[in-house]
Design a protein that fits this description.
Blueprint: E1 2-7, E2 12-21, E3 24-34, H1 36-40, H2 47-69, E4 76-84, H3 88-105, E5 109-113, H4 114-125, E6 133-138, E7 143-148, E8 154-159, H5 165-175, H6 183-192, H7 215-230, H8 237-262, E9 267-271, H9 278-290, E10 294-296, H10 307-319
Parallel strand pairs: 1-4, 4-5, 6-9, 9-10
Antiparallel strand pairs: 1-2, 2-3, 6-7, 7-8
Bound molecules: 5'-O-[(R)-(carboxyoxy)(hydroxy)phosphoryl]adenosine and zinc ion.
């Protein structure tokens, strides 16, 4: 069947058509209208501007997704829309558009959790993958480790207690002059810097916990940069990026290592925008090799927010019979309702 996935939780308006079922997991279109250039001016996402930009883009992005897939709205078997978590004004645009399209055309509608959608992207590229497995979602808003019990049932076994890894990369990227979002630029700088140049605190919570805390690390890096600047020297950006990346990668390896040891699953799925980070990908690949686990990492185009991952997650909500009606709303937190 064809599923139309609609995503508008942050700064990307996206719609995609995927074909699922009968042994097929196929992306027929995946159109993304990014607002990054608009928000760059302000150094971060401005929620009100994001909502307005979604309104302008949503209709054309959706019809482009249908056209590219070579189907009409009448061929769609299910519409899946991100309802949570995210920016409430941004989410409402996608939810109201999806509701209108579904009810005007008599198409079943399902609600999708954005974080679960990041994980579901892995099904589109790995036809053999099925739960249970362990998943790490690292994005601008999330850093969580899950026990994925089934296609729709996730149990969070570790999470950040404050900021997310993506936010932490963007923050220090901004301080050293990288345009928003600085994550990808930090990745490149880290490749040429010295990882042991600056001593920084680990964002991994010690003991049995699989949690993270990035606020102390951010403050320590900021203090280092400010102290150097007060002395009249600009610190080496490459060394900052490399040292900062190293403590984040080491913390991820440590916490995911604990998760893989405590869980009986034999696979790790990496997901989310920060899954594009070359250092995290390489370190988790090595960890899975060492622990003899299968490692699934998304291709670059499926790391950041997109409609195809929403459609993939929506297919399993459809199979579970979790249909929604015109009372469907959006909400900012990550609780499923
Ligand atoms: O999943 P995503 O597209 O949006 C959210 O749901 O948050 O993630 C965006 C985040 C941004 O913080 C961005 O800087 C980060 O992913 N990111 C990276 C890299 N590419 C994108 N962070 C580190 N290294 C990268 N290569
Ligand atoms: Zn995301």
């Amino acid at each position: 069947m064809y599923i139309l996935g609609i995503e508008s939780s942050c700064d990307e308006t996206s719609a995609a058509v995927v074909r699922m079922g009968d042994g097929k997991r196929e992306i027929l279109s995946n159109i993304v209208a990014s607002q990054i250039e608009t928000h760059r001016l302000y150094g971060g996402v401005v929620p009100e501007i994001a909502s307005r930009a979604h309104i302008e883009a949503i209709s054309s992005v959706t019809y482009e997704a249908l056209d590219t897939a070579g189907i009409g709205i009448g061929d769609v078997g299910c519409i899946a829309v991100t309802t949570h978590p995210g920016l409430i004004g941004a989410l409402l645009v996608g939810v109201n558009f999806a509701k209108s399209l579904a009810f005007a055309n008599g198409i079943p509608l399902v609600s999708v959790n954005h974080v679960k959608a990041h994980v579901a992207a892995a099904y589109l590229e790995n036809s053999e993958l099925e739960p249970p497995f362990t998943a790490l979602v690292v994005s601008g808003g999330h850093t969580s480790i899950y026990r994925v019990n089934s296609y729709t049932d996730f149990c969070e076994i570790g999470a950040t207690r404050d900021d997310a890894a993506g936010e932490a990369f963007d923050k220090i990227g901004r301080v050293i002059g990288m345009p928003y979002p600085g994550g990808a630029a930090m990745d490149k700088l880290a490749t040429v810097g010295k990882a042991d140049a600056i001593k920084l605190p680990s964002p991994a919570i010690v003991g049995d916990s699989m949690d993270f805390s990035f606020s102390g690390l951010k403050t320590a890096a900021l203090n280092y940069i400010n102290k150097e600047r007060q002395k009249g020297t600009e610190p080496c950006h490459e060394d900052i990026a490399a040292s900062y990346t190293k403590v984040i990668v080491d913390a991820i390896v440590k916490q995911v290592g604990k998760a893989l040891d405590s869980e009986s699953s034999d696979s790790l799925v990496l997901a989310g925008g920060v899954a594009a980070n070359s250092h995290i990908r390489a370190a988790l690949e090595a960890l899975c090799d060492k622990k003899r686990k299968n490692f699934y990492k998304p291709s670059m185009k499926l790391c950041s927010d997109n409609g195809a991952m929403v459609a993939a997650a929506g297919y399993f909500e459809y199979l579970a019979g979790n249909f929604k009606d015109t009372s469907l709303n959006a909400w900012a937190d990550d609780e499923d309702r």
